[in-house]
């Protein structure tokens, strides 16, 4: 329609000013279904000018903007003859208001103690409407599919039931019209009311009986014991079982859950199918435990769950007390399972994370995992996020003390996730919301949140006294019936299931507990093992393995990773690096660090194994050394030589991560606990950035095997070394990792040559053991003229835990031995050569844990006259390896020898902030280490 004709038509029909909103609503309905509007309107929209090659959504926005502009230019008020048109607009505004704000009037609080502000947008009078007009018919836009108009009274009733019942839906913050329309249709078509069969309702009741029955049984059998009861949030059990069942119906093969302690024991027994007799033994202390073990409500579990679509493998992640930290671990585990199944859409594996109301709002890792949800390196096709909202938080907090938003779930709006608030005392509404949430996730591959509004019948734990801090709430709770009682009464009243039949179900569940039988009918013995860990169990550090690599093959790989298409134009500095790599491949130059590292990856993927690297600058390398991703300077396209070695190679993935440490490291930990093969690396941009992920090191990486028997082969690269760049970009806090070392739980290595990094990375894959590897990786050594290696050194395949003296010294002349690790070795070596000293040997300890005592003793045995042993480090005395490792040093030096320290004095800061002072300190510690006769 030409602009002039459109303007004339609008003015003649009295559609201007605010009335443009009515036209927008009709036009959106028309775009979705042309027959949803009247013949007159359809004709108008059919005649609108079409733009070739532009999608419908864009057409809509163009036309909408024209409407708005014309509305501004047209008449600013409704004329006398346009009263019905104005009312029609008001009705559509009312519909829109309920979609936006209906949740604020929804019946969400089981206790009825929420005090909510009046929402004027939902009142008829706010829209110049009244109940006296309930019999008048109005066009309903997209409110009812296939229905063009309804009486105002029916419209109002539909809106109230849909948006102000037991489900409060927040979704209008989503920018995608398709997603909003989808949610509107799902909710409005059934008015947010469930319609379940007798069998389905009986199943819901049985789940509530199980949730309630287990807690009461534990409370009676083990009074006063901590169990972090689910009571009040009982509907979590039917919710989870519905999620698993429906996921299985749609082809999902695995479900991974993560949750804190609240309700965990209930989920273990009544969802995962853990035998209750085993739980009772744990309460009674009858457990044979290897390692340190962990408390009952931190334990994980795996089982199979039968669904109409086949067996679904369930995995409940082990979780420490740091509540929300398990979320990225779960999502990382899911990504590994999806990668193994070659599923990039997320259809085959479903992540479910269960949050507390205070935790989801209060802990930053939640924001990080939301932010990661659509990033290339971390997407899993959406996560179902369930909040067990007991309205108290963790101990005595009030909502106004735990967040600055109306809902604890408002954080989810950052990624436009729909949020379904649901009353936990209406289990049918809970199950309906669950179905909608799962179907949304499966359709749009995005996160979705279910806010299960409930209460906590007891205190934070069963020994707590909640009346001390929440007297009014707990007076209400004391007289409030359980969800099981309420639902059984409802089914009896509607004659679906009699009270006698309900009682029989209660007695049957109690009988299962008494007999110690599995309470989950859908439980099956595990057949859907996601991965076989047996080849990696029971191995020690010194087990033999095939570590060498054929030199001819290595040279061929070196050529392959140095090649790229001629038309792929490189930046000049990068081209120089690749020109040098071609010379290294040809044997014309010794290999530098970047070449050796990339060759390690090449050798791994060439063998069919995978390599996954993430970090804030992983593709290029923070210090401009890796360049595994080549960027075309003409069109910004990328080329990865490591992805183009052969047809049969393993996958190579490198991602520049989101700007996070704790969530991405936890994600990679989760990935490696679900995938033992290949090499998984997280690289900190600077070593000190690992500080932000300390909880992952403390509660997962260092202790996961001891607490839970969880093997993990994650490799962590932490750039470390004193180059005068100030306190925060010098130290990766080596001492913290050494303090965590015990029971052979992980490796801490400080490689000093390209050959060492090559063989260290390969060792992490080819050795039949899976334990974390912490690497103090270099910065200046990446291009140090002495830090080079030959292809032959790489092909040897050996990582040397100790490297002895490389200069030709007469062993009988050596009276002092200096031990060190990392970059300081080269400074010691150059200074000793400059001094022309022949009586000091320098020994590199390349693996600080497990400490290579026997290898070091063999090196020391070469120097019979050495009685003076020195440990030299760059770090301050209270940092680095000195305090944590000197007992190892003392145990290896010969009897009658002395051990002294050469390094910086103790300091509260990791390093000084001025280059001049750094140089002075560095020279002093080098001189101190090499000077035999001290003043």
TrEMBL record:
Question: What GO molecular-function term can you cite, just one?
Answer: oxoglutarate dehydrogenase (succinyl-transferring) activity
Keyword Oxidoreductase recorded: yes
Q: What is the enzyme's main class?
A: oxidoreductase
- Name the UniProt key words of this record, in alphabetical order: Oxidoreductase, Thiamine pyrophosphate
- List cofactor names only: thiamine diphosphate
Q: Name one Pfam family in it.
A: E1_dh
Q: Does the keyword Oxidoreductase apply?
A: yes
List the InterPro entries.
2-oxogl_dehyd_N (IPR032106), 2oxoglutarate_DH_E1 (IPR011603), DH_E1 (IPR001017), KGD_C_sf (IPR042179), ODO-1/KGD_C (IPR031717), THDP-binding (IPR029061), Transketolase-like_Pyr-bd (IPR005475)
Lineage, top-rank taxon, reads Bacteria
Q: How far does the signal peptide extend, from start to end residue?
A: none
Entry EC no(s): 1.2.4.2
Domain Transketolase-like pyrimidine-binding, first and last residues per copy: 591-784
Name the family the entry cites: Belongs to the alpha-ketoglutarate dehydrogenase family.
Q: Per its UniProt record, what PANTHER family does this chain match?
A: 2-OXOADIPATE DEHYDROGENASE COMPLEX COMPONENT E1, 2-OXOGLUTARATE DEHYDROGENASE
Q: Which function does this protein serve?
A: E1 component of the 2-oxoglutarate dehydrogenase (OGDH) complex which catalyzes the decarboxylation of 2-oxoglutarate, the first step in the conversion of 2-oxoglutarate to succinyl-CoA and CO(2).
Can you name this protein?
Answer: oxoglutarate dehydrogenase (succinyl-transferring)
* Source organism of this protein record: Thalassotalea fonticola
């Amino acid at each position: 329609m030409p602009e002039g004709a459109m303007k004339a038509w609008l003015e003649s029909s009295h559609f201007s000013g605010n009335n443009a909103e009515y036209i927008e609503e009709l036009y959106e309905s028309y775009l979705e279904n042309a027959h949803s509007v009247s013949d007159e309107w359809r004709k108008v929209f059919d005649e609108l000018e079409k733009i070739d090659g532009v999608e419908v959504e864009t057409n809509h926005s163009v036309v909408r903007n024209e409407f708005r502009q014309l509305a501004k230019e047209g008449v600013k008020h409704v004329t006398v003859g346009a009263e019905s048109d104005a009312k029609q607009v008001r009705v559509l505004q009312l519909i829109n208001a309920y979609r936006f704000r209906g949740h604020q009037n929804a019946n969400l609080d089981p206790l009825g103690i929420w005090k909510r502000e009046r929402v004027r947008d939902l009142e008829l009078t706010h829209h110049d409407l009244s109940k006296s007009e309930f019999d008048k018919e109005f066009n309903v836009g997209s409110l009812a599919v296939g229905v063009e108009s309804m009486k105002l009274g029916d419209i109002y009733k539909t809106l109230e039931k849909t948006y102000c019942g037991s489900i409060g839906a927040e979704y209008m913050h989503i920018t995608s019209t398709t997603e909003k329309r989808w949610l509107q249709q799902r909710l409005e078509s059934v008015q947010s009311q469930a319609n379940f069969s007798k069998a389905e309702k009986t199943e819901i009741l049985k789940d509530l009986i199980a949730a309630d029955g287990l807690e009461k049984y534990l409370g009676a059998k083990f009074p006063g014991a901590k169990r972090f009861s689910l009571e009040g949030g009982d509907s979590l059990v039917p919710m989870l079982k519905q999620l698993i069942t429906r996921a299985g119906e749609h082809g999902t093969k695995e479900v991974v859950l993560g949750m804190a302690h609240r309700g965990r024991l209930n989920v273990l027994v009544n969802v995962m199918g853990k035998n209750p007799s085993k739980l009772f033994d744990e309460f009674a202390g009858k457990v044979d435990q290897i390692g340190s073990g962990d408390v009952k409500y931190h334990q994980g579990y795996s089982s199979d769950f039968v669904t109409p679509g086949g067996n679904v493998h369930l995995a409940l992640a082990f979780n420490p007390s740091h509540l929300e930290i398990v979320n990225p671990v779960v999502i990382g585990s899911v990504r590994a399972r999806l990668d193994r199944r070659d599923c990039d859409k997320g259809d085959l594996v479903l992540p479910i994370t269960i949050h507390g109301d205070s935790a989801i709002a209060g802990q930053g890792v939640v924001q990080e995992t939301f932010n990661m949800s659509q990033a290339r390196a971390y997407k899993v096709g959406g996560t179902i996020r369930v909040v067990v909202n007991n309205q108290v938080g963790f101990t005595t907090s009030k909502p106004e003390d735990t967040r600055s938003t109306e809902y604890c779930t408002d954080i989810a709006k950052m990624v436009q996730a729909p949020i379904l608030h649901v009353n936990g005392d209406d289990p049918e509404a809970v199950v309906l919301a669950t179905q909608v949430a799962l179907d949304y996730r499966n359709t749009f591959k995005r996160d979705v949140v279910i806010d299960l509004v409930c209460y906590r019948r007891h205190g934070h734990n069963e020994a707590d006294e909640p009346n001390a801090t929440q007297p009014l709430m707990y007076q209400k709770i004391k007289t409030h019936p359980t969800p099981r009682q309420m639902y059984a009464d409802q089914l009896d009243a509607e004659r679906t299931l009699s009270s006698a039949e309900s009682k029989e179900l209660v007695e049957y569940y109690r009988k299962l507990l008494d007999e110690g039988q599995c309470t989950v009918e859908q439980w099956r013995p595990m057949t859907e093992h996601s991965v076989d860990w047996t080849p990696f169990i029971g191995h020690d550090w010194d087990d033999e393995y095939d570590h060498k690599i054929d030199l001819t093959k290595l040279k061929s790989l070196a050529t392959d990773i140095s090649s790229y298409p001629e038309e792929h134009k490189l930046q000049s500095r990068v081209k120089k690096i690749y020109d040098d790599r071609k010379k290294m491949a040809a044997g014309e130059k010794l290999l530098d660090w970047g070449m050796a590292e990339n060759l390690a990856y090449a050798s791994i993927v060439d063998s069919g194994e995978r390599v996954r690297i993430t970090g804030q600058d992983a593709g290029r390398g923070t210090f401009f050394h890796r360049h595994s991703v080549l960027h075309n300077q003409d069109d910004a396209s990328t080329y990865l030589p490591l992805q183009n070695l052969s047809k049969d190679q393993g996958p190579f993935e490198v991602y520049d991560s989101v700007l996070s440490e704790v969530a991405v490291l936890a994600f990679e930990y989760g990935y490696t606990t679900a995938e033992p093969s290949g090499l998984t690396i997280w690289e900190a941009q600077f070593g000190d950035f690992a500080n932000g992920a300390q909880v992952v090191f403390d509660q997962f990486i260092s202790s996961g095997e001891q607490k839970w028997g969880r093997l993990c082969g994650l490799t962590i690269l932490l750039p470390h070394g004193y180059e005068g760049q100030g306190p925060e970009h010098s130290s990766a806090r080596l001492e913290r990792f050494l303090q965590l070392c015990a029971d052979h739980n992980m490796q801490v290595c400080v490689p000093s040559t390209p050959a060492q990094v090559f063989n260290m990375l390969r060792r992490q894959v080819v050795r039949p053991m899976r334990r974390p590897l912490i690497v103090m990786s270099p910065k200046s050594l990446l291009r140090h003229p002495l830090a080079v290696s030959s292809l032959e050194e790489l092909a040897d395949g050996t990582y040397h835990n100790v490297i002895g003296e490389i200069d030709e010294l007469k062993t009988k002349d050596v009276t002092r031995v200096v031990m060190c690790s990392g970059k300081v070795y080269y400074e010691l070596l150059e200074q000793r050569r400059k001094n022309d000293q022949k009586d000091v040997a320098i020994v590199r300890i390349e693996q600080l844990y497990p400490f290579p005592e026997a290898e070091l003793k063999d090196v020391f045995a070469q120097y019979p006259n050495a009685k003076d042993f020195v440990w030299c480090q760059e770090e301050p005395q209270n940092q680095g390896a000195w305090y944590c490792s000197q007992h190892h040093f003392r145990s290896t030096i010969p009897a009658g020898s002395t051990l002294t320290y050469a390094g910086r004095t103790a300091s509260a800061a990791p390093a000084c902030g001025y280059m001049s002072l750094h140089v002075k300190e560095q020279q002093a510690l080098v001189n101190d280490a090499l000077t035999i006769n001290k003043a």
